[in-house]
Amino acid sequence: MSTKYKKGLARIAVTFLSFSTALTAGGASLAVPLVAQADHTTAHTIEQLQATIADLTAKIAALSGGGSGAGAALCTFTRSLYSGVSAGEDARCLQKYLNSAGFQVSASGAGSAVNETTSFGPKTKMAVAKWQAANGVSPAAGVFGPLSRAKYTSLMGGTTPPPPPGPPGPPPPPTVGTGLRVDPGTQPANSLSPESAARVPYTRVKLTAANDGDVVVKSITVERTGFMADAAISGIVLLDEDGNQISTVEKSLNANHQVVLNDLFTVPKGTSKEYTIAANMAADNDARAGQVGYLSVQAVDASPATVTGSFPIVGAGHTVNGTLAIGSVTMDKGSNDPSSSPTKEVGTTNYVFSSIKMTVGSQEDVMLERIRWNQSGSAGSADLKNIAVYDNKGNKYDVTVSADGKYYTAKIGSGIRVNKGDIAELYIKGDIESGAARTIDFDVYRRTDLVVKGLDHKFYITPPNGASDPTDDSSAFSSVNPWYDASQVTVGNGSLRVEKSNTVTGGNVAVGGSNQAIGAFTFEAKGEPITYTSLVLTIVSTDADSGGEKAELTNVTIYDKNGGAVAGPKDLVKTSITFTDSVTVPIGVNTYTVKGKLGSTGWENNDTIVVGLRPPSTAISSVTGQVTGNTITPTPASNVDANTQTVKAPALAVSPSTSLIAQNVIRGANQMEVGRYNLDAGSSGDDMKVNIVKIRMVTSGSLDPDEFNTIALYDGTATTATLLGTATNPSGNADGDDVTVSITLDTSLIILKGVNKIVSLRANSATTIGADDTVRFDFSGSITNGDWTVLGQSTGTEITETFSTSAGSLMTFKVGGGYEITEDTSAGQTEGWYPDGSTGVTVAAFKVRATSETIAVKDFQVQLTNTASSTAADIAMVYLYEGSKLIAKRVPTFQSRVENFSFNTTAAQGDGSAAQPTNFLEVPADTFKIVTVKVDLPTLNSQSCQDSATPCSGRLIAVDTGPGSSVKHKGVGRGSGVEYSPAVYSSGTTSGTTSVTGVRYFRAVPKVELVTLPSGTSLASGVKVYRWKVTAQGGDIGVYKFTLKMSTSGGAALLLDSAKIVNETEAKDMTNSITLATSSVTQCGDTTGDGSGGCTFDTSGNIRLHAIVDNTTNYSDRWVRISSGASHTFALQIASVTLTATTGEKVTTQLFTDASYPTASSTGLGQTFMFKRGAVEADRQDDFIWTDFTAEATSSATNADTSDWTNGFRVDNFFNDLDAVTVTE
After folding, report:
1. Using one digit for the tens of pLDDT, what is the confidence trace for 633-664?
2. pLDDT tens, 863-889?
3. Is 737 exposed, middle or buried (0-12, 13-18, 19+ CB in 10 A)?
4. Among residues 662, 677, 661, which one has the least CA distance to residue 716?
5. Looking at per-residue confidence, does 916 or 295 come out higher?
């Protein structure tokens, strides 16, 4: 009987067995309840029943004492057991069976009779191998896999168990919610239900889960009401809000006109989801045409959750239609379908499992929306990778896999439109990752799993059934489910692929060193564990001096990733080593390292050695899959060599590190770094361990070596570096003496070959050291090569290290340090304009520089500048940053216009995030750091600027760090502990205070940008010669005036009669026509006395076009309002152009900004920066006039007389005039 669940008895929906049977064997009675119902909704009922029968038969045989080892309890094996597998009770049961069957695991102790363990070790492996040999299981390798399990079942009186199970199912569900509310959803409109229409929506329900947990809905009971006959509907399904079909199968109405939709689904806690009760209509409804029916929800079961709601819930009433010819499709096997049921190895990629082709009928075009494939084989979803659906144009669609791993649903993007008479093909392909001996079968289980919608009538279409029930797995459409019975793939052998591993990089090895890594490989087993019993390792070496010496390589051993030896040791024979150990490679990528000992003779510096598998396909033999039992050929068939190793003598080069610079230090400082050194093993063939270190202290002036104590060596330079050892304090020395400092390390310092290790020397200094005395620590003077004690790690031989004579870093002692604060001008700060409510706005940056020693800033002051118009009300939050790290933040008060920050410099620093500010700033000696001041701006709600407690549009926020000697700044020297007050300077000076430009804020701000003219624009009547756009940022803005400069050239008689400004975004004229010429000479025929509108001449004879909003038909308020976030594009359009015979005539246009604030502006507190519109018009700086509608923040509204207008100075992207644009005839 086929394993496919649609075959045989699985098609007959009838209860065939429901009783309890008492089986008696050998005096034992076994009560066996057998209840099964063949139902095509349960994919593996028949298989499960067969497995149950087989298991019961085996148990009966065991109870009867039949089979080898019948005295032992019957074991249940659900996995392969082999050496190294995780422990378990199945291993203990196997040991008991082996002991009882005469294949003793151990004579005494662990594994012996009554002392069985849960481990599968070497003794169990040996006993299994003996049992396999005695019972004809090949290979007898000691792996208890599927072949052994089948033999065991047979010996115990049972039958061969079913194929290995797939991967484990989904994790247990989350906490169950206590309540589910059911409400009517958004109901579909009453409509028609044509013949063969699918997914016709009748009723929608909204399900809301309680906040305390997800709710699993077990069933929804639906009843057909109205005058429609039950037979009008072929089946009812449930759809989620994304259109996915939840119902595994469509359900038919019973004698009570009801169906129970009992596919489980989950409503996530605290959410509301809408579900649709939909019907698939019968193919022939002529006799029922005109009947109206409803599908009402009668009940919802979500126990143990409590369901609340009012039932029934009734949706649309649809009228059965027997005449409407909706779309149709015909189906065929796709051209990409494999059309056969092959065996494919694990590792097969881009395999097409199944393909179907759809041809659209002549009634209407259709939209192909989604498809659901049913993987009915025994493979699990974890056995497959990179599964996706493709169409005949190569477009890829990702799939969603059901919780049981059996359904793969692809939403076809926004849909594929297929016109009448055209075809569309969909196929599913992917990679076979694992699953040896399992099957893969991508059917389309039911015809409604292909979702197709007609584009004219908007009804879903039910594809036709096949003409008959074809042969199983024949890539054909069927009259029963599965609708498309695809070909089945059998997963064959596992695979084994070998690659070079870089866990052992190309490097150096030493002569005489034991257990040195000389290469590594990755073995990737897919599909099943794989055992091999022979591996030939090829050794290729080069002779640096071509002397022909015979080199020795012994104790070669292969280790797994855990360091366990799996093969060897073996010695080199000629050019290869053959290992005959049985090695089982677990599924996955496994790294194996080759280690050995290079003999003391034959090897010389710069010889090389390479280990390889040449090639793996033949170098590794007797390879067997432990699930299938089949022989496997490893890949690749080309050579795989590990990284080359070069023979080098152990060597260590020691030198002062240039990363520690010469510097000033404060006398009396503790734990200051006085030396830093490179310990370079880059040319070493062995790791090394250092036990004794000697360093020369070189002094000058009146410095006495005895003025240093606690001279210690550290592994690295970090403050948390590990202490290696401390020298005896110098004593008995005089001023200017040089001495050798010797440090015996507490624990050997290991230096890996090929690595440069950094160590640092630290010391405490006395306060008696004279100013400008110096000291350095290096390897000059009496230090000679070999003064340290260094040994090879693997060879154990003593190594003569070499020293550099380069001078160490010079430390110059100072009595004290200090620091200073200056304005940071590196960013080229200019005044910026921002919308109110903006956050993280940079208002200032200061450079804090430490001299002679590291300074921890203890106090930092920020002051509103004397010229600023702002108060504390204009700053909602103030932040101090060092780079991207937050130092501190607070809601400021600015008492007396000053905000002070105090820090605990002994506390632990945070990481600089919003949750963990650093809490203080530390500046290393003779360096600087930038402190950036940022603010959050308040929200404007008033037009008045007279009240200092009220935020005001246009106010300037500018800060400095305080006035000279009275400033509250403090820092603590990290070495000396001395508290310092800094010097505070403005940029480029040596006294005074810092000062910054600052920022202004408004209710909204505009941004002005040039817009490119269309390609090919030339000078002609009606042409637009200049374009720009204005964007409203942070809120609405209103624009009243633009000013443009125009000039002509190339012909004296060039005539431009008039122009206007067009708002392209709204397709409206912003201005009335402005007359530019009255005769053959360009003039300003529409001049105005005050320059507020029309045009004037500048001193160079160019036209200045003053474009105000005077087209009151389009803009009755006389401004163009631009909504927050929106952009309006404007253009200057010339009405009529008269050209002369001269070629090259052109017009150049440019949009002007303002050069300064309106002259009436004052930056003092209480003075206004915003004006009535007329006041700005009367000012010389009136080229761009706009409003931020601040008046609308109060009860009034903006008009010409409200004080919320200003000019274009410092408007975003409009600091300078926009670029000029020239248009040529």
Report:
1. 999 999 999 999 999 989 999 999 999 999 88
2. 887 555 667 888 999 999 998 999 999
3. middle
4. 677
5. 295
Q: How many residues does the chain have?
A: 1225
Helices (runs of H) and strands (runs of E) counted in the chain: 6, 86
The two structure tokens encoding residue 547? 């002397």
Q: Classify the phi-psi angles of 1035: left when phi > 0, otherwise alpha if psi is within -120 to 50, otherwise beta.
A: left
- Are the C-beta atoms of residues 664 and 851 closer than 8 Å to each other? yes
Q: How remote is the C-alpha of 460 from its chain's centroid?
A: 38
CA-CA distances (angstroms) from residue 1076 to 755, 1013, 1146, 1149, 1221?
Answer: 80, 22, 15, 14, 19
CA–CA dist 780, 1171 (Å, integer): 77
**What's the confidence (pLDDT) of residue 1166?**
40
Contact between 952 and 1193 (Cβ < 8 Å): no
User: Hey, what are 1108's tokens?
Assistant: 């105000």
Q: Tell me if 1225 sits within 8 A of 1143, measured CB to CB.
A: yes
Q: Do strands 507-509 and 645-647 pair parallel, antiparallel, or not at all (unpaired)?
A: parallel
Q: What is the residue-wise DSSP string for 1208-1225?
A: -TT-BT-SSPPPPEEEE-
* 933, 843 Cβ separation under 8 angstroms: yes
* 626 within 8 A of 528, measured Cβ to Cβ: yes
Amino acid at 133: A
Rounded distance between C-alpha atoms, residue 1144 and residue 1146, angstroms: 6
Beta bridge partners of 971: 857, 980
Mean pLDDT of the chain: 85
310 pLDDT higher than 60: yes
Question: Cα angle at 1053 between 1048 and 1054, to 5 degrees?
Answer: 40
User: For residue 919, what are its two tokens?
Assistant: 């809490």
- Termini Cα distance of the chain: 87
Q: How far apart are CA 412 and CA 450, in angstroms?
A: 11
| 990 in Cβ contact with 949 (< 8 Å) | no
Integer Cα distance of 231 and 691 in angstroms:
94
Give the model's pLDDT for residue 796: 87
Which pLDDT does position 1085 carry in this prediction? 46
pLDDT tens for each residue of 1098-1132 = 666 677 888 899 999 999 999 999 999 999 999 99
- β 608-613/530-542 pair status: antiparallel
- Sequential DSSP letters for 865-880: -TT----GGG-SEEEE
Structure confidence at residue 987 (pLDDT) = 44
Mean pLDDT calculated for residue range 188-217: 95
Cα–Cα distance for residue pair 444/448, rounded to 1 Å: 9
Residue 965's SS3 state is: helix
What is the Cα 7 distance to its own chain's centre? 45
pLDDT of residue 985: 63
Give, as one character, the DSSP assignment of residue 204. E
Q: How many CB atoms lie within 10 A of CB 538?
A: 16
Kindly state the tokens that stand for 745.
Answer: 């390390």
- List, in sequence order, the alpha helices (H) in 1143-1201: 1173-1178
Q: Where are the beta strands (DSSP E) in 87-242?
A: 179-184, 192-194, 197-198, 200-209, 215-217, 219-226, 233-239
In this structure, of 426-430, 465-469, 673-677, the range with the lowest mean pLDDT score is 465-469
Residue closest to 73 by CA, chosen among 95, 93, 51, 49: 93
Residue type, 136: G
User: Residues 721, 699: contact at Cβ < 8 Å?
Assistant: no
Q: What is the Cα–Cα distance from 833 to 935, expressed in whole angstroms?
A: 13
pLDDT higher than 50, residue 1133: yes
Percentages helix, strand, coil for the chain (3-state, rounded to 5) are 10, 40, 50
For 243, the token pair is: 């259109």
Half-sphere exposure of 673 (CA within 13 A, CB side): 26
Kindly report, residue by residue over 1012-1030, the tens digit of the pLDDT: 999 989 988 899 999 999 9
The two tokens of residue 1221 are 């644009």
